[in-house]
Amino acid sequence: MEYRLTVGLEIHAELKTRTKMFCACLSDPDEKEANKNICPVCMAHPGTLPVINREAVHKVLLVGSAVGGNLADFTEFDRKNYFYPDIPKGYQISQYKYPLVSGGSLAGVELTRIHLEEDTARSQHSGEKSLVDYNRAGVPLMELVTEPVIRDAETAGRFAKELQLLLRYLGAGEANMEKGEMRVEVNISVAPVRSATEINQKESPVLGTKVEVKNLNSFRSVERAIAFEFKRQSKLLDKGGKVVQETRGWDEAKQETFSQRKKESSHDYRYFPDPDLPKLKISEIPEFLPEQLKSALPELPWAKRERYMSYGLKEDEANFLVEEDGFLQIMFEVVTRRTEDRELTRLAANYIISDVRGYLNKAVVNWDKNASSNMGPEAFLELMTMVKEGEVSSRAAKDIIPEMFVSSKSPKAIAKEKGILQQSDAGALAEIAKKVVEANPAVVADYRAGKDAAMQFLVGQGMKVSRGSANPAALREAIGKAIV
Q1: Which alpha helices (H) appear in 129-172, and where do they start and end?
Q2: Among 64-73, 200-209, 391-400, the least confident range
C-alpha cells in the first residue's frame, strides 16, 4: 500500500542567560567540574522558593515575536510530575495550559506553541555505574512544538536548522546540538493513503499511531530517524501488524530506532499550577509589550537571505553568508552598505566564500589579534574595487589576500611590491601596443583577415613586454587602435 507520513516536532533549546531559570546559580554549559553550579533551590531542598528568570521570559517572547506568534497576556508555570534520577524535585517546572507563545510559523511550518521550562540534569552511564551531574538542572529551556504538518524528512531537518539560526541571530541561545543545547524529538505518524487526492491535502483525515523518537542531537539524525521510522512502520502495516504508541531512541551506530518505553499522555504527568510561583500578566511589563519586542528584533535570517539573493547571489551563496555569523558576514555587510554596485557585491561574495574563507580555514595563527594585519572590511573593499576596475587581475587578488592577513600595508602597496599592479595608463599602453604591432606584421595581417585568435596572441606579447603589469582589457583596446 501507499502510506502517508506526518511529522510533528518538539524542540528543546537551552537559553543563553547568566543564571538558571529559578535560582541565581550560573548557567554555564561549558563547566567541566560536576555539580559545581548548584544550590538549595535548584536541588529542591525543603523550604526553598524559586524565582522566575526575567531574561529567559524575554528571550522566549522575542522568539515568539520573530515567528509571528500570539504572545500571551496571561501565563503561569505548572508542575509536570514524573520521576527520573536527573530531576531533583521529582517534578519539572514547565508550562501547560498557558504557554508564553501560541501559533506562528517558521520555514513554512505552522507552530502550535512555545513555552518555557527548566532543563534536567545530565546522566552519565559507565558499565554498572551511573552518575548524575546537576549543573544543567534548572537551566532555562525553551520548548517549541510544531503542528503535525511536516510530510518529509528534509523539511524537518530544514526547520530545525532555521530555528537554530534564529536563536543565534536573536542571541537567545547557541543551540549547539553536539553539546546538547538543542535537542529534537520527532513525532511520527504513518497511515495508509485513503484516496488519490488525500496525499496532497494539508492534513490527513486519518492519522496513524504516534511514535516519538527522543533526543536527536544532529540534523542528520533527525532526517535519518524519520526516514527509518517511515520505512519500519510501513513494513509493519504491510504485514498486518499494529504500530504501538511508544517512545523510541536513536542508535547512531546502527542507524535505527529502538523501543524505550510506552508513550505517556498529558494526564499521566498530573499537571497543576506551581503554588510557589506568581501568575504573570505580560501586558503589565513594559519591555514585554509587542511593540517593544518588535523594535528589539534584528534583521531576521530569512529577510537577510532574501536581501542577499536580491544582489544576484545564488541561493547556496546567500545561505552560507546568512549562516556565517562572524568575520566573513561582517566583511560582506560592509561591501553591501558602501556600494550599490551589484557587480562589485557579487565579486566580493565570491572572494569571501572561496579565498578569505579558505585562508581562515588553513590559518594557524590567531590573525585577528595580530596588530600588523590589514585584513579588515575597508581594506577588502579596496581590493575588490581594484579587481573590478582592472588595477589587479583576479589571479593577483588571490595572492594579495593572504598577504593582507599578515601585513599592515594596503592592497595597492602589496600589489606594487609584488609587481602585479596592472598598468591602465592610456599613453603607456599605446607605446606597448605600437611595439607589438610593429614586431608582428604577419599576425597583424591575420587579424585583419578576420582571425580573432591573432588578437589573443598580440595581447599575450603585450603582456610579456609589460612584464604582466598591463591591464589585459585595456591593452587589447590599445592594440586594436594601433592596428586601425
Answers
A1: 153-170
A2: 200-209
Cα dihedral 467→468→474→475 (10° resolution): 50
- C-beta atoms surrounding 298 within 10 Å: 12
- In whole angstroms, what is the distance from residue 10 CA to residue 178 CA? 17
Q: Cα separation of 401 and 347, whole Å?
A: 14
Q: What is the DSSP string of 37-51?
A: S--TTTTT-TT----
> What is the overall mean pLDDT for the chain?
91
Q: CA 406, CA 94: separation in Å to the nearest integer? A: 52
Biggest alpha carbon–alpha carbon distance for the chain:
102
Q: Could you give the CA distance from residue 352 to residue 342 in angstroms, rounded to a whole number? A: 15
Q: Packing angle between helix 342-351 and helix 327-338, nearest 10 degrees?
A: 170
**Secondary structure class of 184 (helix, strand, coil):** strand
The mean pLDDT value for 203-213 works out to 80
Cα–Cα distance for residue pair 415/446, rounded to 1 Å: 36
The whole-angstrom separation of Cα 383 and Cα 483 is: 33
- The counts of H helices and E strands in the chain are 16, 17
